[in-house]
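Question (not urgent): is this output format expected?
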Amino acid sequence: MICTFLGTGTSMGVPVAGGFGSEMIDDDPRNQRTRCSVWVQTEKASIIIDTGPEFRIQSIRSNIRHIDMVLITHEHMDHIAGLDDLRSYNYMQNGPIPVFTTDRVIKSIQTRFDYLFGENKYPGSTTLDMQIIDEPIKYADATIIPLTYHHGKIDVTGYRINDFTYMTDVKEIPPETKEKVKGSKVLVLSGLRWGPKHPTHLTIPEAVEIACELNIPQTFLVHMNAYVNHEDSNRRLPPNVQLAYDQLQITI
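Got this back:
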């Protein structure tokens, strides 16, 4: 299984619109972060988790030629704004793209992208097959387990795909979800910044604590802001926890 990190940045991206604060970002390309998304390829399946605002650029950069399904974590725009960019895959694959998420998120997407649904669907617009996922599903050689956790006042759905677990925008993980994560070979967690603590996101030290508790062989952190320097941070982290970066590709 191959996992490609399409984007690893926080909700505003790094650098932010207007380039404010860019002076703190060095020339290391790993510190340029688009919004969070990941591409999981098994031998028989091509799966995307989240389609943020830069998904079109990410898909071109990674040469994504086919998508079997999209898994959405939650309805914040840095995770769904690129849904309309799936239109070209409709044309090439001659059919709708299956999108799996919770009932709440489906309703939010149908409201925000109302022109894609119903009797007034705009001609030629993206066609999505919205489906609720609340139990494990099997697709080809991929077993997909939804994972519920807390992001401030809302619940978010992470996903375990075989031995790969992806959870972004995390603040608290219930014990029953931790049990579902255990045994993974690779864990992805959000780690917004080194400090101070944030009301809706894990800091990097908090994410490290969870990674050590779950005893996963390798954890990668995503959703970092501009104050997180890649090389300096990795020096401070234990060997089993490292920052991911845009276009990082790992094999499980």
